[in-house]
């Protein structure tokens, strides 16, 4: 049996050598086939690898998917058509793909999400249409994919300009969608009924949209990304109904200025909070976290305009495993001295520096507030200072002694000279003797 499989593999590989696809034999004689970046404009013959469970046709030259394009690939579970130039998809292009779980069409030029894409895919669970040119979502497009769980529509900048699209998206949410990414679609306002009857949505990204406020969010969320929005203030209780939230991202928010009291109230299951690259954020209320966030493990509060933090954060920040406070213009006074006592990883200390007072500018916060007795080089410095003082004292004493001795020597010489002169006056000249 083994020899037969070896011969079979050798035969199939020899057939596809000219095509340059890369087949990989899986268990039960099923193939994963990589035909990416081969300048293909149509699918290879299915007879060459049968049955195929994964087919990668990314980075090719597809522009038009014709009817029954994949009709013979009935065993495919994952189909990757990303990074092509697909503009048109016929009504029965995906006919026959009755076992398909994942369809990747990102980075193409598709303008309409219609039933031409979703028809004939009863087991589809993941649909990726990010970075296309989508403008319209047709009615009924999600009815033929009742098992759809993950939908990625980010970076379709015209998609959020039509109200009808939200109505049709809401239908997919009602069917039980788990993940929805609608980042960067020019979404200016969330319709009030957009999340009605949404009981299963776990992950939501509405990042990089011109949203100025968020009034209502699904209570089932675990992961929320509102980075890059135009929100200026996080009001009290904004996440109060999202008590299952585990990760919250607020990054690159150009207008965010303040986080008010109880803004994070009720986030009892929050594990990770990312607030980063918000250049105008200069105030966080001392009661922003409410009473307690017992499961918080990772906090990033970096590259903002914050100059100080209330001491009420100390008990909370002391419990986290990862704390990043770098890139903020800290005023190193007594109000933030508590930061130097928190256990922060050494790799997150380099850019945690004082901005004010001027004498402290550029010094790390930890070193600035560290007692001199605990400074790693303090004993050496003290020893050097003591030795220098001793040297100065000894030098001074030696100098005094030398000056005193010199003065005495001069005095003796002077007296001796005087004595010699007196003696010479008393001795008569030789001529008189």
Automatic annotation (TrEMBL):
Transmembrane segments: 380-401
Keywords: Leucine-rich repeat, Membrane, Repeat, Signal, Transmembrane, Transmembrane helix
GO cellular component, one term: extracellular space
Span of the signal peptide: 1-18
Source superkingdom: Eukaryota
Highest classification ranks of the organism: Eukaryota, Metazoa, Ecdysozoa, Arthropoda, Hexapoda
Protein name per Swiss-Prot or TrEMBL: LRRCT domain-containing protein
